[in-house]
Specification:
The chain is of the alpha/beta class. It contains four helices and five strands. Strands 3-2-1-4-5 form a five-stranded mixed β-sheet. It binds zinc ion (ZN).
């Protein structure tokens, strides 16, 4: 692990959304804090009306709504413009950000240019398909995520605990 492993500002970010033609639209964003062993989850609205999407994008949305993360295109609480603010309130110069997978590293790096170094926990051995833990503690507040394998809240808790253990045993 790298040099900042022993400070208190290690967070793990996971998210779900739609891969549209111009960008990845984040719908659910979850942040795990190692120092409190807790996850904060936010749901974001979609700005562009569904009808304005291309047919290809609509197909991506339909697939994700039905078979993947089950988050409806029109579901959401906060506006997209607050997404970066949410991230920045959790991140300062001492924060080390982790996520899982190269594509998520890329998306977060683009959201936070020059703001934080982002590490891929797959490089620390978290590559196996996670074991899902269904209990009160890890359940997402979104009812449609009750038995869904693609929930960022659950992922953040599971990957975050992997990270916490890794940092503690280093
Ligand atoms: Zn969820």
């Amino acid at each position: 692990m790298h040099k900042q492993m022993d400070n208190m500002n290690n967070i793990l970010i996971d998210f779900q959304g739609y891969s549209l033609s111009q960008k990845f639209l984040i719908k659910e964003l979850s942040i795990y804090f190692t120092h409190t062993d807790s996850v904060s989850t936010y749901f974001f609205k979609s700005e562009a009306p569904f009808q304005s999407l291309s047919l290809k994008e609509k197909k991506v949305v339909w697939y994700c709504e039905k078979y993947y993360h089950k988050i409806r295109y029109n579901f959401g609480e906060a506006s997209q413009s607050t997404l970066c603010d949410v991230l920045k309130t959790c991140i300062d110069v001492n924060t080390v950000v982790y996520t899982k997978g190269a594509s998520k590293v890329k998306i977060l790096s683009e959201l936070l240019p020059g703001f934080a170094k982002i590490f891929n926990i797959e490089e620390y051995g978290c590559t196996k398909l996670k074991l899902k833990i269904y209990n009160e503690e890890t359940n997402c507040r979104a009812s449609f995520h009750k038995n869904c394998l693609h929930c960022s809240h659950q992922n953040a808790m599971i990957f975050g605990r992997f990270l916490k253990e890794l940092l503690e045993n280093e």
